[in-house]
Write a structure and sequence with these properties.
The chain has 91 residues and is mainly α. The protein has 2 helices and no strands. It is globular and about 30 Å long. The N and C termini lie far apart (43 Å). The structure holds zinc ion.
């Protein structure tokens, strides 16, 4: 099994998706990672994605929860899925 030279990254958080399990719903080709997308590959609501990414930073980098939430907010703000007018943004 060979990996593509550059792997796709999540349109919501930028996480590189290498394994099928990294993709939403476990489906390679999904636009979002398993943290940001649901079982059907659809983007989760902003608050859920924000919280999930903050939790990930707490686990992976040992950040304080409040600091992790701020970092996650800044991260998501730069991603295409969360630009003003993007479908995932919601009301
Ligand atoms: Zn993601």
């Amino acid at each position: 099994m060979s990996l593509p030279e550059h792997c796709p990254s999540c349109g919501s958080c930028g996480f590189p998706m290498r394994e099928p399990a990294d993709f939403a719903g476990g489906q390679p080709g999904a636009a979002y990672c398993s943290t940001c997308g649901d079982e059907a590959g659809r983007l989760r609501p902003y608050d859920e994605v924000l919280q999930a990414n903050a939790d990930y930073l707490v686990r992976q980098q040992g950040l304080d929860p409040a600091a992790a939430r701020e970092m996650a907010r800044a991260l998501l703000a730069a991603m295409p899925a969360w630009q003003a007018g993007a479908p995932g943004r919601g009301a």
